[in-house]
Amino acid sequence: MTGEAIVPGPVVTALGGGHGLFATLRAARRLSTDVTAVVTVADDGGSSGRLRSELGVIPPGDLRMALAALAADEPDVRTWTETLQHRFGGTGALAGHSVGNLILAGLTEVLGDTVSALDEMSRVLRIQGRVLPMSPIPLAIEADVGGLESDPRVSRCIRGQVAVATTPGKVRRVRLLPSDPPACPDALDAIERSDLVLLGPGSWFSSVIPHVLVPEQLQALIQSRARKALILNLAAEPGETAGFSAERHLHVLSQHAPELTVDDVIVDSSSVPDGSEREHLCRAARRLGAAVTYADVAEPGTATHHAGKLAAALDSLRAVGAGERSAFHSTPGRESTSWQ
């Protein structure tokens, strides 16, 4: 008796940070059991900022969120996941700290490095993929911001992820400090072996753009044979992207990484009305080498992506077009039949 062949899902790498990456990972895990999260490491606020300052560790908050997104959905694991996400109350030294942040900081000290700590926590949570930092060292974000001086043509330099995310001015450009940070070697390997690479959504200047500012990681993205999809935010964020159109988000990415191309831009259909806005967005996408896919991907009444709807939109990419856009670029020597 011949059984039906089991077709593996795509090898997926998702880049981002915070709640945006959490949403992407919840969608990606519906498509594949081989999902790697590559997470920004520039947070300097809240529990993460305190642990970074006091212990010199990579800020653990976004890494913890990614672990929770990929954790197995089993009763005993759910207890662990809920505990990792639990935040202490009160007014003492632990007030405001997430349990998972403390565990990751402790595991990093015990095991000697962040990647080993994340792999150990992934084992406890029965994660089939991996969670990795964008860089093995904590980074800082610096931005040129207009509108903070009496002369609107003058920019002020501000530093720190929280400062950039909450500025009342207009962010024009961001940089990482140090300016040439090392990439995480395992993250580069994940990008190289991927069938599908996802970037966004999330805080554009502090969670998405930083991924193209690590030189080795940008080169890995440029050289990758994977299909690359950019997932746009459902709405502009107060502070760093206030007033931004969907088109403007693409221009900003191009300005920071002019050599980067992507294959697809996924946009919530209700966030960009028919007419000139869609025409402008399509032109901006073509400059990135991309086609725009409009789909209902939002939780009703919110600015949050719905995991099931986003997964369906990602799954539909393999059926788009009749030419080379209809398939992910497969890596020689590995079976990924359903995505070819």
From TrEMBL:
InterPro entries: CofD, CofD-like_dom_sf, Gluconeogen_factor. GO terms for biological process: regulation of cell shape. The keyword Magnesium does not apply. GO terms for molecular function: LPPG:FO 2-phospho-L-lactate transferase activity. GO terms for cellular component: cytoplasm. It holds the Pfam family CofD. Keywords: Cytoplasm. Belongs to the gluconeogenesis factor family. Required for morphogenesis under gluconeogenic growth conditions. This is Putative gluconeogenesis factor.
